[in-house]
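If your schedule permits, I should be very grateful for your opinion on a structural question. The matter concerns a single protein, recorded as an amino acid sequence and a row of backbone structure tokens. Could you please explain, in whatever detail you think fit, how the structure tokens follow from the sequence? I set the record out below, with my sincere thanks for your time.

——
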Amino acid sequence: MLTETNQKYQRKELELKSLLEITQAINENQPESTLTEIFKFTCLIHLNIRSLILYMQTEKGFEKKISHGVKAKVPPVISLDQIHETKSAEKLELHLDEGFSFEELETYLPVYHKDKMLAILFIKRKRLEEDLDLNFTQALTNILVVALENKRFARKQLQQEVLNREVAIASQVQQLLFPRNLPEEGYLQAKVTYVPHSMVGGDYYDLIRVADGLDFFCIADVSGKGIAAALLMSNFQASLRTLLRSGERSLTTIVNQLNFTLFDNTHGERFITFFLGMYDRNTQTLDYVNAGHNPPILCHEHAGEIELLHAGTTVLGAFEELPFMEAGKRKLGGDFTLHLYTDGLTEAMDESEEEFGEDRLKDFVSGHLCMDPKDFHESFLARFEKFREKEALRDDLTLFSLRFKNGHS
């Protein structure tokens, strides 16, 4: 009787020692590898355990975290659809792929946080004639799993904070790409409405005045979103401005060179839709190339007509050499307005999943031909918000309007 009592006390002493070792390591903020080694050592030395496998839930499923003394072939990951568990009934069913088995192990202990199973510990006793304190083993496993989950959460939170800082920097850099000031009076008036889907967007617009009476303007939309799209667009903008500073005035040459640079950088994996226009006030001539972008709307104010500008080529970056090219040209004597936009505008949806569409945009433009861009944007956004109501935008949105007044100096 005394021997049995001593054995119980000895077992409790070992359990307390085990608990102290693991909690002390947690309090000292030891790395994951140290915590898992202490847990494994504790189970094998202080507890009646010969073999064990610990699976912890990750985004992939239940991933093997610790394994010792198991000869059978066990899966590195148990997917969620292979597990059927009921906490109330303490029942766990595993449907493993052929060739995998847990038959070598004796029992399992699930680890829960509220109703969510975080881990599964499979174990086999060292001495079959001695009992295993399952409650203590489960509690010890719970302590380890919670500590590892906290570490994973803290690491993820730190990564998110770093990402947020990077995104904030990228957003600030991206703002520098856009024109700081757009002309509001004189022969050219311009206004932009730019709403990125997130802190950084894949839309780009620009107005570059290279000489007296010679203006370049463009709009672009890069495939994808986020920092990668913003970085690609910043490189694209730098290439465009370098070409214009070099004195290049041929739009087809500029577009071909931009396509080559983009393809060389991305190997055809990313593309950009792009519209580039050039207006020469001295000759009252508009030249343009549309590279797979939404056709801008040209408003002939005196004629009371609108026109879509399609002429150009396909998207940039998809082919090493553009398969075709057509430069557009218009002789424009009177006042005219151009509305450039990205598909985030026309593909915006209302609550019934109906797109705003090009027809609504054209109808609105047709009814508001001779307006200053600032007033046009104010009226259009009121109409657009009424359509969209509270439905969130699903892409970057840009509307870039330019009004050329040839009768004014």
In short: The CA atoms of residues 182 and 267 lie 35 Å apart. The longest strand covers residues 49-58.
